[in-house]
Amino acid sequence: MMERKENIPAIDQATINQTGEWELMHGVALRNADGTARHCPYSIAPVTLERTTYEKLVRVTPLISKLIHGVSEDQAFLEENVTGAALADPFFGRLLKINKQIMANNPARLPLLIIRTDYMDDRNQGARVIEFNGIAAGMAPFGQRVHEFHRYVQMQWPEVFSRWVAADNGELAVNKGLDNLAKGIADTAFEVRSRSDDKGKGKPVFIMVVQEDEDNVYDQHLLEMKLLDLGVRPVRRTFDQLSKELSTGPNQRLILKDIGGVDVVYLRVGYQCIDYFIPGEPECCSALINTRAYIEKHRVAMNATVSQQLATSKTIQMVITNMSAKQLSRWGLTEAEGVEVLSVLAEMKPIDANTATWLRDHADVHDWVLKNQGEGGGHCVFGSDIFTKLAELKPDKYKAWALMLRLFPHERERPALAVRDNKASVVEDLISEIGLFTVHFEGKPMAGDDGYAGYLIRSKPAQENEGGVHTGKGVLDSILLIN
């Protein structure tokens, strides 16, 4: 690790207070249970990333989105490859069941694919995909704001920035995640309205499906305000509310009570059973997951469709990882594009009765991570705990899990300063997760020339397994490009 710069003043509490106030003033906040807000945890200076690595990720991520779109519309492939996981995981099984019902009735929904593809820059392998986030793919607004925050620190407190940044020279990587995501959604909303009987009648309507009383609302509100600026009317609803307020209009138009025709539906929930829970309901997901199926009967742009959620699952990620570049051409990629996609996919293996023996006799268990189909934090098993978990699994649950080669990303060359709850702490071993956003409507790029919209960086201490900003030990971050 490189030595810290000497003779540069350490940051004081007054400066910490001002940086936290900047975050609150710009909406980079989490809601407390009592309705007040606190700033999101953040790094005072950005992580460094080789320019060539960044440029490769920006180039390859839209290819991944092109691939996922093709897979999500390939129902035979989906059913063939997710049936095993569906039998092993009740929620995943529910998704497959509802997807079969949707597809059997010629759904009118128009697929809007908003993905955040998450990477880590491994010390030896280079940048590799952790997972595809095809539902509730949020925090693009925070990504842009933290880039703007680091530019503010660089200009306002150059000595502080210089002390805590991990390189003496570099360029902040521009991040327009909020602007590009909003524009992609707005352009989609106007396109859907232009095809409807509501053409020329009022603003397009955008529904954001949210959790009740969640804390991560300011990221959502930033997107809503930007959509308002672009001429779109944003509306917030829970699944429970939608189950009572939706109806069908002429020509398969989705109608929201007291609002009218709907053009875009964007799910910020729906990746776990609890998102559909109604107290007293005998079967998890029965009523509210049917609301998703109901929406897909209509001519409305939707992210995520159930098939998109299946296509971005760990099971499909594993299947794709073990395919050849030529096989990926099934979904419109050239063989050269397939090679690029495979170059960023980490090795994955299915679970069977011999996995524990193979790990013990032929591999190092610390080189692998065990994952289930869950999204978000808390779904990974590391180290010797893998043996414990494998011993607990019954054979009919194997296909709900997969092994993935563990990624060991670069630690920062210098200690980093993290701020949480207005208190600064030095982190000696901060590592970063890199999320890149893409937006496509019916397979067509809706951000830039190829669909790339922006990025989100979350950093955490290397010893921490959970890097969530509001549920783990993560902090918001941005990128400084170095040559």
From TrEMBL:
One of its GO terms (molecular function) is glutathione binding. Residues 205-311 form the Glutathione synthase substrate-binding domain. Pfam families: GSH_synth_ATP, GSH_synthase. GO terms for cellular component: cytosol. It is an enzyme of class 6 (ligase). ATP binds at K314, E433, R458, K460, E466. Its EC number is 6.3.2.3. Keywords: ATP-binding, Glutathione biosynthesis, Ligase, Magnesium, Metal-binding, Nucleotide-binding. It comes from the Eukaryota. Binds 1 Mg(2+) ion per subunit. The keyword Lipid metabolism does not apply. The keyword Ligase applies. Mg(2+) binds at E375. Pathway: Sulfur metabolism; glutathione biosynthesis; glutathione from L-cysteine and L-glutamate: step 2/2. It catalyses: gamma-L-glutamyl-L-cysteine + glycine + ATP = glutathione + ADP + phosphate + H(+). InterPro entries: Glutathione_synthase, Glutathione_synthase_a-hlx, Glutathione_synthase_C_euk, Glutathione_synthase_N_euk, GSH-S_sub-bd_sf, GSH_synth_subst-bd, PreATP-grasp_dom_sf. Its cofactor is Mg(2+). Substrate binds at Q220. Belongs to the eukaryotic GSH synthase family. This is Glutathione synthetase. It comes from Sphaeroforma arctica JP610. The lineage of its organism: Eukaryota, Ichthyosporea, Ichthyophonida, Sphaeroforma.
